[in-house]
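Narrative of accomplishments. A recurring question from our advisory board has been how the design workflow behaves on a single, concrete structure rather than in aggregate. To address it, we present the structure tokens for one chain from the evaluation set, followed by the sequence designed for it. No filtering or post-editing was applied between the two.
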């Protein structure tokens, strides 16, 4: 992951949302709370989420990376 948050997309969202049915979105890997509060998170908090979802690598966002 880039060290500068501003080198990343505005959010991890890929438009495949499952937060109505799942605790963690299958599309982006964020929790429902992270999704709903994303615009209010500090850069540091957003960076921590990016690090976690990239390390987990289980969201659809990362599916092409595993091909």
């Amino acid at each position: 992951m880039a060290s500068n948050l501003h080198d990343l997309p505005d959010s991890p969202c890929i438009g495949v949302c499952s937060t109505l049915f799942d605790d963690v979105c299958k599309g982006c890997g964020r929790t429902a709370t992270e999704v709903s509060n994303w615009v209010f998170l500090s850069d540091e908090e957003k960076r921590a989420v990016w690090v976690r979802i990239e390390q987990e690598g289980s969201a659809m966002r990362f599916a092409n990376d595993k091909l």
